[in-house]
Write a structure and sequence with these properties.
alpha+beta; six-stranded antiparallel β-sheet; two-stranded antiparallel sheet; 2 helices; 21% helix; 33% strand; globular
């Protein structure tokens, strides 16, 4: 099962478009971070079926955990940044990025990190 965490400025992440992280803010955050890098295409393979899915987003960024080498994608859309199934270290990275954006990290169920 998939679970997302969201970097948002809104009181509740579904309303992120009402108080958005702007595209310029996000691009500046990526440029200034040093560990995030724009990576506009993600190809994922379903391990059960072998089917591949390609996601394209000109504002998507990736972060590779220096300790584990695990890569996480930070998907920008509609004024928020989403990471799917983040590890504990990715959650810490999200919190750092959120702080730089004057935002917070919230889970799908509304819990704050």
């Amino acid at each position: 099962m998939s679970y997302d965490l969201h970097i948002t400025k809104a009181t509740d992440w579904p309303q992120s478009s009402l108080l958005p992280i702007t595209e310029n803010e996000w691009q500046d955050a990526v440029a200034n971070d040093g560990q995030l890098r724009l990576e506009t295409t993600l190809i994922a393979v379903n391990p059960k079926t072998g089917e591949s899915i390609q996601i394209n987003n000109p504002l998507m960024a990736s972060w590779t955990d220096p300790a584990s080498g695990e890569k996480h994608f930070f998907y920008y859309s509609c004024g928020e940044v989403t990471v799917n199934n983040p590890s504990e270290s990715a959650i810490q990275k999200m919190k750092s990025v959120a702080s730089a954006l004057a935002a917070r990290v919230q889970g799908d169920e509304g819990e704050w990190y």
